[in-house]
Each structure stands twice: as structure tokens, then as C-alpha cells.
Amino acid sequence: MIATARWKFENQLLSRVLAVCLAARAVPVAAQALQPAATPAPQGVYHNPVLFADYSDPDVIRDGAHYYLIASTFHFVPGIPILESTDLVHWTILGHVVDRLTMDPRYSMAGGNRYGKGVWAPSIRKHGGIFYVYFPTPDEGIFMSSAPQITGPWSKPAAVIAGPGLEDPCPFWDDDGQAYLIHSVTGAGPLILHHMSADGKHVLDRGRIVVRNPVHLPTLEGPKLYKRHGYYYIFAPFGGVAGGAQAVLRSRHIYGPYQYRVVLAQGSTPINGPHQGGYVETPGGEGWFVHFQSDGAHGRIVHLEPVRWKNDWPIVGADPDTETTGWPVPSGPIPGHTAAPSDLHPQTSDDFNETVLAPQWEWNHNPDDAHWSLTARPGSLRLVPMRADALLAARNTLTECMQDNAFQFTIRVDLTAMKSGVHAGLAMFEEFPSGLAVAQSGNVRRLSYFYLQERVKGPALTQSAIELRVRVRADRARYSYSLDEGKTFHNLGGATPIHFSWWKGSRPALFAFTTLASDPGAVDFDWAHYRALAPNPW
Predict the structure, then answer these.
(1) Which has the least CB within 10 A, 59, 355, 382, 436?
(2) Residue 525 maps to which CATH number?
(3) Catalytic residue among 54, 57, 362, 430
């Protein structure tokens, strides 16, 4: 066995768990109330959240010496990011599972849009040497993609169950080779189990309800099915995104009946809604639970909790039967094998020097590939604006996740090829977007700030390039610009709210669209630079 690095937490839980049981044997456990350190953690120490980024509905598996995490992406494309780690704490982005969403033309913004639709909570498993990812779309069905390697190529999504109203699927292959698929329904609950073909491509029956408990487990969703020591376990959150908790159900028989316990809840800590995620074990058998917490405009950020087993029930965090006063956070082996570099994190900045997009980028819908390029002007991302009346109706808006509670995101835009009617710039992309836009009317270009119906005029531009910047701290953004290649920046607009919308957090984004039917020319983005900031007040 490869030795694991030792770790410790230097914090304590803020208070005891709220001692309310939802069933006779329920064991509610408080979420660990840990926040990121202002300075890098010492060797062997980690702080929650491990990913201050909107990797919502995470699922995780281990394959040899590596852990892989996937997350929901809804309308953003490519869909389902794959993150890789050797210790469950430090992650990088490998790529995505789904290149395009082809279930409805509106995913390409033809005849409407699909904001908030698309890929909901996915799951990942490896069976028979093949990686499988299952995901639902709320109006089209449950789909599966597979690949011989985690880096792909991934098969085109195929419908395992066609039709609306299904969510949160998870496959399971039993010891005898029989395959099953468990899922919930849109709106959450009950949990339905299907017998599935061994190749994982289609279900063999209409399914059987295995859990329905609207009184004690309302809004039950996100099931993950496991087997351990002869018991079948369903890890499933309940109670809703912002204020729910995590339950675990077990049975000696896959179709039940299932007992349940509440294993993770907010209690009196500030960590709201700690639930929905995946269970994984290290090569040495240590258990860990990766889950999300709803954090407002930042979306659903990722926490890591140690898991111990007692009488074949998982204990997530601290055990209320024995640790009743000022519980110290448990110490033990750090997950993984060797210490990962402390500066390892998901990719953010991009100089656009490659011929393919870096893996952090996701379009607002399926892109029109004829209207963007990394080779037309080498060293730049070129957007050829398409016709739209406003930003949310525009195609080819390029986004990435926030990775910190506070950060700075700066871009350089070359306007040389831009023509009349075009609006281009930097935004925090969401249902209520804000940002800085350069608009050209005839031969005149002017910078402006926008948010809802508010517009603040900036300077008329005579030079061909401008730097635009957004600084985010908590749930506010502030915009600025530079006309002297970054030597000085000038604020435009005030502190602007950002929001959680379409089930996703707000995102920095690059955009270009035109309101005219004439030739739009092109807009070239020379680079996008991201930098984490201390989470201080403005």
C-alpha cells in the first residue's frame, strides 16, 4: 500500500449539531464549518470548501491512483466537466463528457433557449474497463455516454430512458453482473429502480418505487447506489438545495425495504444545505464524502468530509453519540497517495495560444463553430458577432466558473476588425447580467456599463485595444477599464449584485453580438487573466 500523507484540521466545529432526529434511528451530523485559509494551508492540511467553484451536483470515483469528479452544467456546453485529483483536495480540469446537446434545437438557440435545462445531476462509474456517465435532461430523458479512457473519446449521448420528468440517474452493477439504474423524478421523489441491460444502454422494465417518504424525506433526489458488506446503500439528499440535508438508506435487498439515517445536516453551523454528492474510498479503505453547499451567487461549491463506519452505518463528520461537546474535527489520513502540489487548482487564465479551447471554457449554448476561431488571428480568440437583440439572446458567449470567493478577471480586447452594430466586452453572465460593453455606431465606439435597465456611459474610444476588468468579492462585482495597456484602471458603474440563476452561479464571460444585419467584422480577445484576491471589503 502506498503510504498516505498525514493531515490535521486546526479548526473546530462552531457548535454542536442541532439535535433533532427525523426518524427513530436518524443521526443528524453537523457540516464542518471550515472556510478557506487566507494563506496556503500547511503541508498535509486542507480547508473546506476544497473547490470554491460551482461544480454542482458532484459525483466522484477512484480509478487506481486518481480520483475523478464530474458535475452538472445545465445549458452550458461542452457539458459535464471532468476534474482529476490524486488526493481529493487539489483538482485540475481534464475535459468534458458531452461536446454538444442535440436533444432540442433550442440548445443551439434556434427558436428559443434552454437556460436552466440541459445536463442536470450526473453520475460516473467504471465497469468492465469502461467509464460510464449518466445524466438527465428534464424534458428529454436520461442519457448515457461511455469511454474506454477518462480522457475519451466519449460516445454521443444515447437515451437510456426517453421522455420528460426524470432526474438524477445512477447506475449500479451488482456482484452477479446484473445492472440497475436508480433515479428520481423532476421535482424530487420518489426514488425509482430499474433493471438495466448489462451494457448499460437501456432499462429492461418500467421501474419500481423503492423509496417514498414525503413526510420524513421530502424532496428526495440525487440518489447514489453502492454496496458494502452485503448491504445496499442509497446516499440521497432531501429537503431542497439551499436548506436540505443528506440521508443514507440501507437494505439487505436491492429493492428494499430501506431504513434510513440523516448523516449530514447544517445543525447550528453556517454551512447551509450540506448535501448531494458522492462517496469514495481510498486504496487504504478510508471513506470520504464529496458534496455541495449552496453559496448564493457563487453557485454550489464543493466540500470534502471524512466518513467512518459504525455498525455498518456511515458517520459523516463527527459522531453525536460520542462527541457531544466542542467536537474537534476528526484527524486521520489525508485522502490519496502522495501530497499534491499546493498550487494545483482548476485552470483559469488563458492567452489563447493553442488551437483548441482550454478546458475551463464553456459556451452559453451550443456554439456556432463558423463564428469563432483560435486560428484566424493566432494568439487570440476571434468572435464573429451574430445577430441578437441583447446579451442573453446572443450565441457564442464564452464563460468559465468562478474559482474563489474573491477574484479579479481581466481581458484585453482588440477592436480593429469590429464594425457598426456590434456590442462586445466582459460580463458576469447570469439571468441578470452586468458588465462592460464597447458598442460601435457608424465609426464611433463607446464604452458603457450595463446592469438591468441601468446604463452608465464611459469614454468614446479612439484606440484599437482596451483592457476590461471585473473584481468580485462575495456577491458583488465592480468593473473597470484601462486605456493605457493596464497601467491605470478607471471604475465604471458601482458595486453590482451578482446572482444564482438557472441553477448555476454567475460567471465571467466574453461576448460579442450585433444588432444589425450588416457585416459585423470580428472581435479579437487577446487574453483573459484570472487572479484570486483576499476576500476583504471593497
Answers:
(1) 355
(2) 2.60.120.200
(3) 57
**pLDDT tens-digit readout, 319-375:** 656 654 433 333 334 555 455 666 789 999 999 999 999 999 999 999 999 999 999
Domain that includes residue 411, residue range: 362-532
Angle value at C-alpha 223, between 218 and 226, nearest 5 degrees: 135
Average pLDDT over residues 126-130: 97
Q: What single string gives the DSSP state of each residue in 192-254? A: EEEEE-TTSSSBSSS-EEEE--TTTS-S----EEEEETTEEEEEEEES-TTT-EEEEEEESST
Among 87, 167, 221, 467, which one carries the catalytic annotation? 221
Active site residue 475: no
Separation of alpha carbons 139 and 125, rounded Å: 24
Name the nearest CA neighbour of 199 among 178, 183, 182: 178
- CATH code of the domain covering residue 215: 2.115.10.20
Q: How many domains are contained in the chain?
A: 2
**Residues 166 and 313 grouped into a single domain:** yes
Q: Do 251 and 385 fall into the same domain?
A: no
CA–CA separation, 410 and 426 (whole Å): 9
The residue with cell 441553477 is: 503
Residue type, 446: R
Q: Last residue of a domain, which of 318, 333, 348?
A: 333
- Whether residue 111 is contained in a domain is answered as yes
pLDDT (mean) for 471-482 = 97
Of 479, 219, 525, nearest to 357 (Cα)?
525
Question: Is 57 marked active-site?
Answer: yes
Q: Is residue 259 part of a domain?
A: yes
Q: What is the DSSP letter of 1?
A: -
Longest dimension (CA), the chain: 75
370 and 479 in a single domain? The answer is yes
